[in-house]
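Lecture notes, continued. The same structure-token format from the folding unit now serves as the input rather than the output. Read the line below as a description of shape only.
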């Protein structure tokens, strides 16, 4: 469909240029066209397609032939970083018109892109690596394309989260992708508490300079014995996949500077029946015990009952006892 549109457009452009250069009239050109081409001119051009194109996460050979063709045929390529994607296109031997679409200009770009789609242009959206919208820009654009009743088509391909899951050897029938954890410790820990009871395999992206702190929090909050995989530099020269418990991976990353270099995905086993309880369950158990016992004893029992890490249970118990002591609005 896209290639037919390109062929007709190219021919019509050539005809129009012919008219501009020569003395022949527009009707002379019209007469040279076949029925389909005439119809394309009389009937308004249908809206274009937004192609969401996955590009390699490291290895250029992972770009699909279809992705290459779509990039070649699109009227314009929207790229997170035009210089970066310009290099990819150059390596593919393509010279294309590139427009930036990143976190800071996406809202401003959306109406311009919608206008081009309505005019009948085909637009390809790419990000720096992998699948657009997966911890990358594009969501606002796609939601507006949907609202406007325009069409989008996926050109599937590499995605670091799926690549890591595919080699983790952890349950893959149900998984949850959480993107990047918050950067600051308190919100990061709160997010992990929220995830601690989830039985699904957890997939996270992490920056190399935060991997040690993030793994430390995971050991504390999800429990040291959960199985996990740290997949770094996938499809690249220094691709390494480490398997082990969270505790073992945290130790590995602490002692081996190479293990915390490059781009990293962490895949963590979901909560199993015997693993530490989720925050909700721990809180419920603590509340029951604290109503009858001194705090220290309640914490010890709660740890035994739920398998939660002791310092996490202790901190939660202190928070709960503070909540108990602080006067509620009803007390006034
Ligand atoms: N949209 C991309 C995708 O489909 O995977 C993800 C973009 S996100 C901004 C970048 C993060 O993805 C990195 O910080 C890292 O966590 C992960 N990532 C990207 N490429 C990777 C690779 N080759 N190996 C491991 N992780 C990778």
């Amino acid at each position: 469909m896209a290639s037919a549109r390109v062929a007709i457009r190219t021919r019509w452009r050539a005809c129009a240029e012919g008219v501009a250069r020569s003395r022949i009239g527009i009707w002379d050109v019209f007469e040279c066209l076949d029925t389909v081409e005439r119809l394309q001119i009389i009937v308004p051009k249908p809206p274009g397609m937004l192609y969401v194109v996955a590009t390699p996460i490291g290895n250029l050979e992972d770009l699909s032939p279809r992705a290459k063709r779509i990039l070649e045929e699109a009227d314009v390529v929207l790229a997170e970083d035009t210089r970066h994607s310009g290099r990819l296109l150059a390596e593919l031997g393509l010279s294309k018109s590139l427009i930036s679409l990143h976190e800071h200009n996406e809202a401003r770009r959306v109406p311009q892109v919608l206008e081009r789609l309505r005019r009948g242009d085909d637009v390809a959206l790419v990000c720096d690596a992998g699948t657009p919208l997966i911890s990358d820009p594009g969501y606002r654009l796609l939601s507006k394309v949907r609202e406007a009743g325009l069409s989008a088509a996926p050109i599937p391909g590499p995605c670091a989260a799926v690549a890591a899951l595919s080699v983790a050897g952890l349950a893959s029938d149900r998984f949850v992708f959480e993107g990047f954890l918050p950067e600051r410790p308190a919100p990061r820990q709160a997010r992990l508490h929220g995830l601690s009871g989830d039985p699904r395999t957890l997939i996270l992206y992490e920056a190399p300079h935060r991997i040690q702190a993030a793994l430390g929090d995971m050991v504390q909050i999800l429990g040291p014995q959960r199985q996990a995989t740290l997949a770094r530099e996938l499809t690249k020269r220094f691709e390494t996949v480490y398997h082990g418990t969270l505790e073992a991976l945290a130790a590995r990353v602490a002692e081996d500077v190479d293990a915390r270099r490059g781009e990293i995905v962490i895949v963590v086993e979901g909560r199993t029946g015997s693993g530490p309880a989720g925050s909700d369950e721990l809180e419920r158990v603590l509340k029951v015990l604290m109503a009858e016992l001194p705090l220290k004893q309640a914490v010890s029992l709660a740890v035994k009952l739920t398998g939660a890490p002791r310092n996490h249970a202790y901190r939660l118990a202190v928070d709960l006892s503070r909540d108990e002591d602080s006067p509620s609005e009803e007390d006034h």
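Point for the exam: The radius of gyration is 28 Å.
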